[in-house]
Amino acid sequence: MAWRFKASKYKNAAPKFPKKEEWISEVSTRDLGQSCGNHIAASCAYMAFNIDSGGGGKLAILPLTASGKYGPNLPVLHAHGDFVSDFSFSQFDDFLLATGSHDHRVSIWNLPDEDMMEGQINLLEASTTLPQQESRIENVLWNPIAENVLAISTSNVVKIFDVEECREKCVLNDHKDQVQSISWKGDGSIIASSCKDKTLRIFDPRSQKVVQEGCGPQNIKDSRAYWLGNKDQLLSSGFDTSRSREVKLFDTRNLKSALHSMSFGTSTGVMMPLFDEDTNMLFLIGKGDTSINYLEVSESSPYLTENSVVRTEQTKRSGIGAKESSGCNGGRVPVIVPRKTYRDFHDDLFPPTSSGDPVLSAANWFSGENGQVKTISLNPERRENVVCQSEANC
C-alpha cells in the first residue's frame, strides 16, 4: 500500500526564523490560564495580544511590520474593565476588531490607520457594544462569509448577533456545561462547539438545532473544536484520561467515532490547531512547547501526513493571519520549499486564496441564504485589478 508512505510536498521545507533584532521584545504578556481564547489575532494590518496590566482589560495593538523593543511605548487599547478573554479581526476589514471579556461584554472596535495609531489608540472608544451578558464571554468569532455576523460563547450558550443592528438573533443552548470553543465551517453555514460536558456539537444556527454530536477528548478541561475550512472534517484537541495530549480528526457527518487520532505526550499545554485551507496545511502548536507540528491534510486515509519544525523558544500562543487581497505576507515566518527554479510562480504552493470580500449581508445570511468564499489568485501577473484595503500593505 504505497499510499501510506506518500511524502508531503512540504517534507523538506525549511523555515527561516527571524533574527533577534527583528523580534518584538520588552512586552509584558500575562498569564493566560484563566480563559479559553487563543490570545493572539492578526489581520493584514495589525496584530493584537493580551498584555499584563493592573486592570486586566488591555490589548497591545501593533502593525504587522513592527519589530524591536517597546517597553512603556507599547500601543495599548483599553478595551474592557476585566480580562479580555478572546478577540477576532473581521475577514473583510483589517481594522475591525471584536473583543469579549470577563466583564460580560462584547465590544466592536474600528482601529485607526497606522500613522494615527500612537495618538489615538489609548483614547479609542468602542464603535459598538453588544447587550451585556449574564456571564463572562469566552469566545468571539466572525462568520467567514457574511458581513456583521458574530458568534459568541458565554457560560453554556452560543449566541449569534447581527452586529450592525446590535441584536441577538440566534441562541444555541443545548450544552450541559461551559462552552470552551466555537468554530465556523468555511462556508459560514454551520458552527461547531466543544464543551466541558465532553461532547462535540455541530449546529445549524439559523434553525437553532443540533445536527451532529459526538464524544470529544475524554478529559476536556481545556479543549478545542476546529473546523478544517470548508471540508467535512473537524479537529478536536484536548487530553485523554491519562493527561496525554490528544488530537482527533472527525468526519463532520458522523461524530460518533474519529477518522484518525494522534497523541503528543503529557503536558499542561493543550495543542492549538491552525489550518490554512489554501494549502491544506495544519499547524499544531502546544502551549509551552519548543516545537511546531505541521501536517498536510487529505480527505482519505491516512488523512494526516506529518512533518515538524523544532524551535528553541517556548510558544505561549499562536495565530494565523490572512493572505488576502491587500498583498500582505501570509505568514510571518518564511518557509523555503525546494524547487528546481525559484523564478517561476508555483501554483501548488500559492493556490487561490480568500479575496477578503463579504459574500452575504447579515440580513441575507439570517434569512437563510448561503454562499462560498470569494477567491483570488496570488499570482502577481493575474492581480492587476486588486484593490488594497490598506495602502500601507501594498
Task: Give keywords.
single chain; 394 residues; mainly beta; Methylamine Dehydrogenase, Chain H; four-stranded antiparallel sheet; 2 helices; 30 strands; 39% strand; globular; disordered C terminus
What does this structure look like?
With 394 residues, this protein is mostly beta strands. Helices cover 3% and strands 39% of the residues. A four-stranded antiparallel β-sheet has the order 3-4-5-7, with no helix packed on it.
Task: Give the overall pLDDT as a whole number.
Answer: 84
- What fold name goes in the CATH topology slot? Methylamine Dehydrogenase, Chain H
Helix content: under 10%
- Strand percent estimate: 35-45%
Give the beta-strand count: 30
CATH superfamily: YVTN repeat-like/Quinoprotein amine dehydrogenase
**Would you identify the regions where 5 or more consecutive residues have pLDDT less than 50?**
1-5, 324-331, 384-394
- Bulk shape: globular
Give the class-level CATH name. Answer: Mainly Beta
Domain module count: 1
Biggest sheet: strands side by side, in what order? 3-4-5-7
Oligomer: single chain
Taking the sheet with the most strands, its summary is: 4 strands, antiparallel
Distance between the termini: 47 Å
Which class of secondary structure composition applies to the elements? mainly beta
